[in-house]
Input
Amino acid sequence: MTDPIADYLTRLRNAIKASHRIVEMPASNIKKEITKVLHDKGYIQNYKFEENGPQGSIKIALKYNPATKQNAIVNLSRISKPGLRKYVKHEDLPRVINGLGIAILSTSKGVMTDKEARTEGIGGEVLCYVY
Output
């Protein structure tokens, strides 16, 4: 697999379109950090890291509105790809839908959102947009 983050986002996207409650995928450290950010910002209901086999897995419980059955995540898009990395300075951090969505960045201080990176005053690689 050449791009595990794109695979992670695609599995989430497919589970949302199929209205699944839980999605399971292979784990890695970057996927675990992205999952923690999505949970902290309220885009997923819960998550669990399982240590089965050499790699382990991540189980994610998706969050749906009980009245309308609509998912909390409307769109997931990969920005920085293996063939074309996107790095930004702290002055040029992106604002997703004028602040309604989040951009997930990989910085020297770990994986964080654009708002956290703006307050820390650091830039990094823009991994994906979530709204």
Summary: The longest helix spans residues 4-17. The chain has a mean pLDDT of 96. Residues 13 and 76 are 7 Å apart (CA to CA).
